[in-house]
Amino acid sequence: MATADPFEVRMRFSSQLQHLNASTTSAQKAAQYALKYKDMDEDLHSCILEQLEKTSMNTRANIMYFLEHLLEMASKERQNDYVRMMQRDILRVVDAVCPEDGSGAANVKVVRKVLQGLMTKSVLLEQTVIEIEGCLKERDTSADLGFSSPANGDDTSRSRNGNGNSTANRLDKRQIEQRIEEDRERHKRMRESMWAVPGSLEEEAMKIYEETSEYGEDDETFGREEREEFLREAEANKCDHIRAKEAAEAAAVVAGGNGTSSH
User: Fold this and answer.
1) DSSP category for residue 190
2) Which one of 90, 148, 177, 190 is CB 3.0 to 4.6 Å from 157, fit for a cystine?
3) Alpha-carbon span 93 to 46, nearest angstrom
């Protein structure tokens, strides 16, 4: 098997990171690529840091979600070098996704969610997450410079070079719309995952069967008592018009019977 060219691997990986979106597929595809070329893990790790520090805030959020997939898959495959390097550089990652200048305030929730996920998966220590949370509180502000609306008339919505041109404003608006759409897609997938049934339906049915006790005499007695209780409750909760209707029907039956017997 021919050895892959390191420069080409790096360029392809950088392109995948730049084009990440809200879909789980794109994140998993990039993670699988990184694991495929695990012999270049240090180079690809530096590539992740480079993209985090040069791309837009939306892309940085997507890379942050990608990291959760990468580290989870790396842990399962015991590729601990990726995990070790990310543990070492996690503060640098957070600073890139949520800069201290407030331009990444919209990404604070993203960082919190990913950090909590990595802590749950034992990739990050709880103490590390707690310490980072202290930094995030200072950056979680409503005045998000990177996503300020041009319509609010605030000078901070202008680009940092001071020209405040309309092109920069339009770009900001486009990024905001893109972010809203991607967040909506993530929330949709999150709701879908909540209803996902693990494994096949046959496995789930067998699990329920094995966890259910055998039907016995006690179950029959309990079921009969439950039915009687239900009927008593139903009788007690009948509306007045239903009672009146049943009484009228009963009276009609009696009257009909008397009329028949008179003949």
Assistant:
1) H
2) 148
3) 11
Instruction: Answer for the pair 75, 123: CB distance below 8 angstroms, yes or no.
Output: yes
DSSP letter (8 states) at residue 156: G
Cβ–Cβ < 8 Å for 93, 49: yes
Number of H helices, E strands in the chain: 11, 0
Specify the residue for token string 């006690």.
218
Q: Which residue has the higher pLDDT, 231 or 11?
A: 11
The model's pLDDT over 14-65, given as tens digits with 9 standing for 90+, comes to 999 999 988 889 999 999 999 999 999 999 999 999 999 999 999 999 999 9
Burial (CB count within 10 angstroms: exposed 0-12, middle 13-18, buried 19+), residue 254: exposed
- Cα gap 57→45, rounded to integer Å: 19
Residue 257: its H or E element: helix 240-262
For residue 66, name the pLDDT band (cuts at 50, 70, 90). Answer: very high
Closest CA to 72 of 117, 42, 23: 117
Distance CA 119, CA 152 (A): 39
Question: Which residue in this structure is represented by tokens 């590390």?
Answer: 128
Residue-wise pLDDT for 71-96, tens only, equals 999 999 988 999 999 999 999 999 99
- Angstrom distances, CA of residue 52 to CA of 22, 143, 225: 16, 22, 65
CA angle 105, 65, 67 (to 5 degrees): 115
